[in-house]
Amino acid sequence: MTTIYEQRPGLSRRELLKRGTIGAALIITGNAVISPDKAWGLETAALKPDTMATLIKLARDIYPHDSIADRFYAIAVKGHDTKAGTDGAHRELIEAGIADLDARAGAGGYRGLGWEDDRVDILKQIEATPFFQAVRGDLVVSLYNQKELWPHFGYEGESYSKGGYIARGFDDIEWL
Questions:
Q1: Is the pLDDT of residue 13 over 60?
Q2: What is the rounded CA–CA span in Å between residue 46 and residue 49?
Q3: Sheet containing 40-43: which strands, arranged edge to edge?
Q4: CB–CB of 94/55 below 8 Å?
Q5: What are phi and psi of 33, to 5 degrees?
Q6: Which residues pair with 43 in a beta bridge?
Q7: What pLDDT does residue 23 have?
Q8: Which of 36, 75, 132, 154 could bond to 173 as cystine, CB 3.0-4.6 Å?
């Protein structure tokens, strides 16, 4: 399988441990995005690892949930990498959209903006673009359809097989 992004030498395990991280930093190495403090990683196949790391930050800014780990956002945006592997137009849409975000953010790019409000201001500028609509529309399903997150939102899943919602306390949800 041929990769589409530029190959760069990765970090050795020793170098990764020497550098360390502060907070929820993501490390990009080779064809992966790694969160060493939370012990998860995401391998990319078609999109650049930098693009995937920015998509994760973008997903959190579009649907912010402070108590949800970044790995769930990574799972949610992984579909864009999969689709980009078979659809060149989608790959171009995502890569160009991320490049535009980085250009609008200035030095350090979109991920380099420390304040969420600054990133949201940029998102408001692009909310009508096909790029933003593609990412936002996909996130509605890919983020909230992760069964591991359902208890966090008080969603118990489909109710038909359990006798419906009314007989089970449909109004017991506390966060609404």
A1: no
A2: 9
A3: 27-29, 32-35, 40-43
A4: yes
A5: -115, 125
A6: 32
A7: 43
A8: 154
Query: 117-148: buried (b, 16+ CB within 10 Å) or exposed (e) per residue?
Result: eebeebbeebeeeebbebbeebbeebbeeeee
170 pLDDT above the threshold of 90? no
Structure tokens at 160: 């038909």
In whole angstroms, give the CA distance from residue 87 to residue 91.
Answer: 6
For 165-176, letters b (16+ CB in 10 Å) and e give eeeeeeeeeeee
Q: Say if residue 14's pLDDT is above 60.
A: no
In the chain, what are the domain boundaries? 46-149
CA distances to 7, 80, 148, 153, 156 from 171, in Å: 52, 36, 22, 14, 12
Kindly indicate the confidence band of residue 171, based on its pLDDT and cuts at 50, 70 and 90: low
The stretches of the chain forming alpha helices (DSSP H) are 13-19, 49-62, 70-86, 88-105, 109-112, 116-126, 130-144, 150-153
What confidence tens digit (pLDDT) does each residue in 144-160 have? 999 999 988 888 777 77
Q: How far is CA 36 from CA 16, 47, 58, in A?
A: 8, 21, 20
Which DSSP symbol is given to 73? H
Distance from C-alpha of 49 to C-alpha of 110, rounded to nearest angstrom: 14
Per-residue DSSP letter, 154: T
